[in-house]
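Form 12-C: Joint structure prediction
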Amino acid sequence: MPITKTMLGQLSLLLMTIGFAALLATGAGLVWLIENSRSFATGVSATEEVRLAASRVLSLLQDAETGQRGYLLTQNSAYLQPYHDAIEGLPRELPRLERMVTATGGDTGAIRRLHDLAGAKMDELAETLARAELGDLQGALAVVRTDRGKVAMDAIRQSVARIEAQSAQEVAARSAALNRNGRLLLIGAAAAFLLILAVTIGAALLAWRYTIVLETAQAAIAAANSSLEARVAERTAALAAANEEVQRFAYIVSHDLRSPLVNIMGFTAELQASIEPLAALVARLEGEAPALLASDARLAVTEDIPEALGFIRSSTQRMDRLINAILRLSREGRRMLQPEQVALDGVIGAIAGALQHQLEAAGARLEVAPGLPVLRTDRLAVEQIFGNLLDNAVKYLDPSRPGRIAVRGRRTATHAVIEVEDNGRGIDPRDHGRIFELFRRSGRQDRPGEGIGLAHVRALARRLGGDVECRSAPGLGSTFRVTLALTAPASAPASEDSPA
Amino acid sequence: MNAAAQAVTIVMVEDDEGHARLIEKNLQRAGVFNEVRHFTDGTSALEYLVGAGRPEQRPFLVLLDLNLPDMSGFDILARLKADPQLRAAPVIVLTTTDDEREIRRCYELGCSVYITKPVNYETFAQAVRQLGLFLAVIQVPPTP
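Section 2 - Result
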């Protein structure tokens, strides 16, 4: 069963609660046991008191009997002192004993019997002493001889012994209970300890299992990551291969397209050459025998065929230029980038110098903001990018106002951003994406060009780890913003094999 | 040395019939009337040049197209330059592309001139003439 984080929390809480409850129970048991021991001690001392009080009662009764015997022997009333003390002490001691026994939960029946027996004994003593005081010594002795007093005294001794035994029994019972409770508590504490131990082990096991689950999950994530990296590498390789394929395709297509074109151009030239003697013949015929010359034949030689040849020639030348453009782009894509330190100030300055003549002819001004970024990139590619953009800016200026072209740049953390702004004729917003496509041009087609420059710029900017975008409003001007990586990405080595 | 016996034979290896015809016409127009042997594939050209029944000790000038159906022009060039008898024969490479790496490779393999099509026939004829003269060519005038 997999362990979730929530489950781990709940289980841990449960185990902790169990352990804590066991600890609490053990503590409570201990408190209870201490309380129990204290009440035991109190009980033991109370029982001792009962025994003491009982023996005091017995002693008082014995003293009273001793006083009676002494008086009966001597008739000296001085011997009666213990007897009088007993008469005085017993009404105090007996209720006290009774209270104590009641308090300790002893047998009050035994006390009441003792009470009665003591009463009977005292009555017997009082009777004998009353007879002796009246001079009836023989009568008194006769009462003694009835053994009434002795019997009562024996019963009293037995009764006191019973009370004492009962007390001792109670102490023993309490002691046994205390022992039992102590043992119970010990067992309970041991059980609680075992429970806490079990809970601790359980918690540890839980944590261990959860760690294993976490580790498994981590391993799975690592595996997923590495497979992701492998997939990315795979895709990158596939993309590079596809790109290579496109480059080869462009190369081969342009190569093979040129072959038939060479024939068309060559044989057009042959036709041109062949038409010359024919034209001469027509001219001669016109002069010598105009009747022989049909007017449509003359028209064909002097106008139709040269016109057709002219169109064929201009079309094939255009096609040749287009194919060359594709070839150049594909070649540019295959060229190894050679990153070096390139200061844009210098690059733009050199282009501006080369454009000076055209700028003057157009009456335009080029302003280059100082402090353009320095990049580590391919110099030739950067030169081509800004050469094309500035060339376009000059080419498409609006003749109705003085031309103004501005170049400015800044750098971000990873890229240089350079803007080439002009106040030229502008580009229709519909064409902002189109102009970067090969052979696509915008606006009036009144300037020479094949629609290659911006396609080339975009391809180069992307190779240098950047891009180019256009903002423009017709009639106001255009701004081309080029972003270039401060450090150009390493280019894949172009294959040195011939693509043919 | 008999000049006539030493007349240079131009061996043209070109798979496109149109190109071949244009080259021939322009050579003649430029006044080069040497015998032209035309082959449309590499195998038959090599068979003629380095095969068992090849003509003895005749000077050749080879016009070579790089894109042939059966093999690359580089292979033929390498074979020619590896042959002791033909090593000295001038080779003019004619091709549709001006790829720098191809040009460099051709010169490394020993080609004499590299010309890109469509051909400027003026310079082409001049190159043929110069290379032919270098080899003591006697142009055979057309029999009237």
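Section 3 - Comments
Chain B has one domain: 9-134. Chain B has five helices and five strands.
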